[in-house]
Structure formats: structure tokens, C-alpha cells
Design brief:
Layout lengths: L9 E3 L6 E7 L2 E4 L6 H6 L1 H12 L3 H14 L4 H14 L10 H23 L3
Antiparallel strand pairs: 1-2, 2-3
Helix pairs in contact: 2-3, 3-4, 3-5, 4-5
The structure holds zinc ion.
The site of zinc ion (ZN) has 9 residues, from loops.
């Protein structure tokens, strides 16, 4: 059961309007469809937050993807990142089911991230 998936995160891209895979390149995360740089987008807090809200409005999956991408591209510690996205959802009137509250979401996001972190560790080891 080994599937070579670079990223399991897909995101409704504010650049091209497609829900596309997030492509990971060294030090950056971008839209696989149009190449929009999510790390650069994250520096524009207002636009990044708007993109996160648009994703969260697509449903629970969108909430998880917003959490995952914010954690990858937002540059905040994981718990702080989850808290930011949760507060953003609350302000936007998006309901996060009780069982998906930050602690559980954090575990889910970890499950999404651990495989890619494993790959990163291996490829960053230079001889
Ligand atoms: Zn795009």
C-alpha cells in the first residue's frame, strides 16, 4: 500500500479558480494548475484569509485543506496556525463540527503532513 503522492492537499486556487493539487517545491508550495505561489500569497494576509474562507465554504474537506495549507505556507507554529484558521471560520460563520475541533484537526493534518515530511527528510540529506 505505498502510494507515491507528493502532496495530498488540494486547494481552491484564487489565481485560476481550479481546485488543484498543491505542488511542493523546495521551500515553496504552489498551485499545480497555474503555479500561484502560496507562500507569497500567505504574506498578503487578507488575500490568503479570503482564499482560506473560500475553501472552507466548500465543506469539511475544504476546512481540512485550508488548515493544512495554512500550516504549510503560513509560517506559524501548528497550534497557532490551527487557531487562526478556526477563528477565521468562526468569523466567517463556517461551522466546524465538534469532532473536527482543533485538537482533532491537528491530528488529521499531521496524518496529511507526515508522509511529505518523511520524503523531505530523506531528500534533504546530502552527502
Ligand atoms: Zn491556480
Amino acid at each position: 500500500m505505498t502510494r507515491a503522492v507528493e502532496s495530498t492537499i488540494h486547494f481552491l486556487c484564487p489565481g485560476c479558480g481550479a481546485t488543484a493539487l498543491v505542488r511542493e517545491t523546495p521551500g515553496s508550495y504552489g498551485c499545480a494548475a497555474c503555479g500561484l505561489d502560496y507562500v507569497a500569497l500567505a504574506r498578503d494576509k487578507e488575500r490568503f484569509d479570503a482564499a482560506l474562507v473560500a475553501n472552507m465554504r466548500t465543506g469539511l474537506d475544504g476546512v481540512l485543506m485550508a488548515l493544512a495549507l495554512h500550516q504549510l505556507a503560513g509560517g506559524l507554529p501548528p497550534a497557532q496556525s490551527a487557531e487562526h484558521v478556526r477563528a477565521l471560520a468562526e468569523r466567517s460563520g463556517i461551522d466546524i463540527p465538534e469532532y473536527q475541533r482543533p485538537t482533532n484537526i491537528f491530528q488529521t493534518v499531521l496524518c496529511l503532513l507526515v508522509p511529505s515530511l518523511g520524503i523531505k527528510k530523506r531528500t534533504s540529506r546530502r552527502s
